[in-house]
């Protein structure tokens, strides 16, 4: 037995009938002992009605569905090797020959958003600067800040030409960006042993766009060899990009 | 498991909204967080085998709100709020940096964050046994998490 008032947390579960039998019995007994205890359940039911009127189920369900379509939470980082898609690789080579920086419809290298890369230092986050050195096995946490565009994605390319999609998890539509505040990606990313560098790109736009467009551009860039450390992604007008370079020490 | 979003929200939405309003102290931010709670739950609906998911919803709501409090610092409105903000700040940096992958390495559990456990016990007033029943840990497991959080909190300002 206890003198405390029944915590709201348990009251909610009691009202839903989701407390185990013994706990429910004890909760009911506690409510009976409290001054105004009986009124608490009644007040909860009235609050339910008010809140559902303020936030109607059909409107909320629509918004929930929209948010689910916009962002897919990754279960693990997905690595897309450009060599794994022969057709895409041939296309990338063709594009690399046909497109030159002065011919491609270039976007601004510096977008309005900031790409942040943190390294885990034994449980403490270390904010890296672009150009910093990191090793294979280092765990990085990506984030973005000051996004003013509505849609975005984050990809990386490395020194052996691999392209990795970080946000969203799967190919499809670009993710819906959280505007004007720092937002971490849901999962961290472990650097592999590929030599040279890993370069991260945040691409954003006011309109929805397909991830495959940017993935192709990334594959095109990797075909430029050393220039992929510095050149921008060849993207169409309307897409902004910002990049962050992590270098890896020579073996 | 086929889930009717409207029905699911009608039953559990007000509870989630009250939870978010309590923690965020802002009706608009609470409504926004409430949507994200349902998105997070529905994304994992394949693992939603529990026919009494109120615990999962309340824990997820607590976690979503703690994440937002960590990102958006504000002035505490009262003692409870001050405690809540300290819990949010003191939560394991590894959770902040690396989300599930690092957290799993440390605690081998995805059931509840340390911050959520602290909120249940220190703010909501659940006993250690009630917290343990809620989050699926032993009482000693809950105590250990709270000790870890208090140790980290001592570094940033104390709980």
Short description:
The complex is a heterodimer of chains A (251) and B (159). With 251 residues, chain A is of the alpha+beta class.
How would you characterize this protein structure?
Chain A contains six helices and eleven strands. In chain A, strands 1, 5, 6, 7, 10 and 11 form a six-stranded antiparallel sheet that branches. In chain A, strands 2, 3, 4, 8 and 9 form a five-stranded antiparallel sheet that branches. The longest helix of chain A is centred in the first third of the chain and has 18 residues. About 16% of the residues of chain A have low confidence. With 159 residues, chain B is mainly α. Chain B is 74% helix and 0% strand. Chain B is built from eight helices and no strands. In chain B, α4 runs antiparallel to α6 and α6 packs across α8. About 11% of the residues of chain B have low confidence. At the A-B interface, α1, α3, α4 and β8 of A face α1, α2, α3 and α5 of B.
Index terms:
heterodimer; A: 251 residues; alpha+beta; 6-stranded antiparallel sheet; 5-stranded antiparallel sheet; 6 helices; elongated; B: 159 residues; 74% helix
Distance between the termini of chain A: 66 Å
DSSP strand content of chain B: under 5%
Shape of chain A: elongated
Give the helix level of chain B as a range of percent. Answer: over 70%
Helix content of chain A: 25-40%
CA radius of gyration of chain A is: 25 Å
* Secondary-structure element pattern of chain B, one letter each: HHHHHHHH
Total count of helical runs of at least 4 residues of chain B: 8
| Overall pLDDT score of chain A | 79
- Average predicted local confidence, pLDDT of chain B: 78
Distance from first to last alpha carbon of chain B = 41 Å
Main β-sheet of chain A: number of strands, strand sense, barrel status? 6 strands, antiparallel
- Count of DSSP E strands of chain A? 11
Strand content of chain A: 15-25%
Number of strands of chain B: 0
Q: What structural class results from the helix and strand content of chain B?
A: mainly alpha
């Amino acid at each position: 037995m206890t003198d405390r008032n029944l915590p709201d947390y348990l009251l909610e579960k009691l009202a839903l009938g989701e407390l185990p039998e013994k706990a429910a019995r004890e909760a009911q007994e506690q409510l009976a002992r409290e001054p105004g205890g009986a009124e608490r359940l009644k007040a909860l039911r009235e609050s339910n009605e008010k809140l559902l009127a303020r936030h109607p189920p059909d409107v909320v369900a629509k918004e929930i569905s929209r948010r689910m379509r916009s962002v897919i939470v990754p279960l693990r980082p997905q690595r897309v090797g450009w060599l794994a898609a022969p057709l895409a690789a041939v296309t990338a080579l063709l594009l690399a020959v046909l497109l030159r920086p002065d011919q491609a419809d270039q976007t601004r290298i510096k977008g309005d958003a900031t790409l942040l890369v943190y390294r885990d230092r034994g449980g403490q986050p270390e904010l890296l600067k672009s150009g910093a050195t990191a090793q294979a096995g280092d765990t990085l946490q990506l984030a973005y800040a000051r996004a003013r565009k509505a849609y975005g994605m984050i990809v990386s390319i490395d020194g052996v030409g691999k392209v990795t999609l970080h946000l969203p998890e799967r190919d499809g539509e670009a993710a819906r960006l959280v505007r004007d505040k720092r937002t971490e990606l849901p999962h961290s990313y472990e650097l592999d042993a590929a030599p040279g560098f890993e370069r991260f790109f945040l691409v954003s736009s006011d309109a929805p766009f397909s991830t495959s467009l940017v993935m192709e551009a990334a594959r095109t860039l990797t075909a430029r060899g050393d220039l992929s450390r510095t050149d921008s992604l060849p993207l169409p007008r309307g897409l902004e990009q910002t990049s962050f370079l992590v270098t890896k020490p020579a073996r | 498991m086929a889930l009717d979003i409207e029905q699911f929200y009608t039953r559990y939405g007000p509870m989630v909204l009250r939870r978010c309003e309590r923690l965020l102290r802002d009706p608009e931010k609470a409504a926004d967080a409430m949507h994200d709670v349902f998105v997070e739950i529905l994304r994992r609906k394949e693992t939603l085998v529990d026919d009494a998911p109120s615990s999962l919803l309340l824990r997820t709501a607590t976690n979503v709100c703690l994440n937002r409090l960590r990102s958006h610092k504000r002035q505490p409105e009262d003692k409870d709020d001050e405690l809540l903000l300290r819990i949010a700040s003191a939560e394991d940096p590894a959770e902040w940096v690396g989300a599930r992958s690092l957290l799993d390495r440390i605690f081998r559990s995805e059931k509840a964050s340390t911050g959520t456990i602290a909120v249940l016990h220190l703010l909501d007033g659940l006993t250690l046994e009630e917290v343990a029943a809620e989050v699926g840990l032993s009482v000693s497991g809950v105590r250990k998490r709270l000790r870890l959080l208090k140790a980290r909190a001592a570094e940033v300002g104390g709980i």
